[in-house]
Amino acid sequence: MSAWRGLSLFVGDARLVAAKDLRIEWRARTTLGQVLPFALLVLVLFGFALDANRPTLRLATPGLLWM
Hints:
Layout: H1 3-28, H2 31-49, H3 54-66
Helix pairs in contact: 2-3
């Protein structure tokens, strides 16, 4: 089996798993309702902690969302 064939199979399997998980999450609709308010709360709290310095917040926001 060539490396490209193996990669193609891996990507196809990953897409199937992601599609299945997204369908389950769409039906349940609980994760978005829990994660989104928490993410906004974290951003607001860190905004206060970083003294609302706009350049610092712009640099830190992607990392905070990653948490």
